[in-house]
Amino acid sequence: MATLPISPAGMEENISSQYVLLCEGGGDKNFFEELIRVRSLPSFYVTHPRTSIDPGGRSGFASRLRGLRLQHGFDRIKGIIVASDNDRDPAASFKEVRGQIHEAEYKAPNHPFTVSAGTPAVSIMMVPGAGLGQLETLCLEAIEDEWPKEFACASTYAACVGIEKWPNVGKRERAKLRALISHICQKDPNSSLSHLWHEKRELVIPLTHKCFDPISAYLSGFEAAVAEAS
């Protein structure tokens, strides 16, 4: 009897919703899952490029999108949102995401926050919206309002050790966010976005903050947008 091939990790996982949210990494996945829970948003199967299987970050989108076709429940998917950071060049970042979707042989939209009709329909959600930045940009905005004293301390620290002079804004924001988590989250100062909401840790990033409203609104209206596009 021939030996059956072993499926890579994650291939056998059931897709738990008719709507998929594909993001860049584990920290993003945990953020979106917690945002959906806290705000009672519609159900999404949230996933990201798989460690040791797909390339990391948005360069792994094509591989992960192809992998979805091999999972149980793919045939019930009505829509996919691919979420990615704008970073320092929103147009170039969007173009890269769109290219990854085409490479995986899905139909990609021509603009962010629009839906390309198909089976399944596909949309691209660029974070934090129209401007420069990334998910950490929004997290810092929420923390600044919730923890103003700690935010000021982190800014002083960043200036003191030279972080504010780093040429890459995204890395500056990640360093500052990590410093804030370290001195707010007493239960686990070594925590990260990947584990920040696990085991009842302190509320560091208030997901009810208004800066997350546009993301929440898009997730809430995605089912209707898919229906309208079809």
TrEMBL record:
Top-rank taxon: Bacteria
InterPro entries cross-referenced by the UniProt entry: DUF3226
A Pfam short name: DUF3226
The protein's name: DUF4276 family protein
Source species of the chain: Bryocella elongata
